[in-house]
Specification:
Elements (H helix, E strand, L loop, with lengths): L18 H7 L15 E4 L9 E3 L2 E5 L4 E6 L5 E6 L9 E3 L2 E5 L4 E6 L5 E6 L9 E3 L2 E5 L4 E6 L5 E6 L9 E3 L2 E5 L4 E6 L5 E6 L9 E3 L2 E5 L4 E6 L5 E6 L9 E3 L2 E5 L4 E6 L4 E7 L9 E2 L3 E5 L4 E6 L5 E6 L9 E2 L4 E4 L4 E5 L13
Antiparallel strand pairs: 1-32, 2-3, 3-4, 4-5, 6-7, 7-8, 8-9, 10-11, 11-12, 12-13, 14-15, 15-16, 16-17, 18-19, 19-20, 20-21, 22-23, 23-24, 24-25, 26-27, 27-28, 28-29, 30-31, 31-32
Amino acid sequence: MAYQRQRPRRNLRRWLLPVGLLSAALGYFSRQWSAETPFVWVVTAADGIMATPTRWAGVLYFGADDGCVYAVDAHTGTLLWKFAQAFPVRTTPALAQGLVFVGTDAGVLYALDAVTGEVEWKATAGGPIRSSPQYSQGTVYFGSDEGVIWARDAMSGELRWKRALGESLSTPVAVAGTSLYLTTGAGRVIALSVADGSPRWEASFPANHLTAPLLVGDEMYIGTDRGGLYAISLVQGETRRVATVPHAITTPLMGWEGYLYFGTRGARVYAYDLHRGKLIWETAVLGPVYAPFWITGTTLYVADMSGHLSVLGTERGELLEQIDLQGILTAGPLGDARYLYFATWTGEVGTLTPNLLGISGKVRR
């Protein structure tokens, strides 16, 4: 890892992006690095970063297409440790019980010591793991491209159960009570028992891609690549379409203080009022939006494929600030009380502060 600002490398391995992301990105491929961009610090991995980092206890954890998992000091960018293997890491790390859980394109889930980066255990799936691991009550859950959902003991790696679904799994699962909820690459939403993986219900949608489920009370919400926003009963799986937008919903849904926020391939950000049951605003940004959002109390941070970070008001969607980070942003921003963090398709991870954007207020932890 090189600890200086530098121009992003243009590497043919970028063509490994999923087709939808690639086609949206091509128009922005010539972005150049600018020394004027107000970073606090920037570090550079040897290849692109496709999943949002995780911050825990003052440390930023992230995987990259160079096959490494990095742990850096969140305030200084100092490298604390690096774990290396041979295949891209395209999952957001999950942290629990002092372990970091990541999946690789080789189909291996690693449990790493959060302090040292040493391997505590590993387990092999039958295909690439693009479904970011999720931890709940001593169990880590993850899906793989061959269509199997796995549940393993978080401390030992022992298999608790697995369930073959026959469809690729690339989004994180959600767990509530005794049920686990997931979306598949064939347009299905499935509820399973967390105890043994037995099926409880399923629902199908006229779509090729669904967002990860977002649980809100006794319902879940999903978005589709045909622009549909749906609410689904957690108990019975009954569905209702609550909104429609002109373009594919391409970001995870984010819930915040009675609203849902999401972005689209059409370079739009939307807010949906859960209480009134309708869309209340939409705002155009400068490129297609695939990365998760970050929210403060009244501020929404949106990273788009043009390399810009747009800062919007959560209530009306007004544009507060826009900064050119000059690198394709496929990983979402995140923050703590001092910094905002971002990651790019070309391997840069960096920080800036809300004050540098002209924004005040405490960032959500």
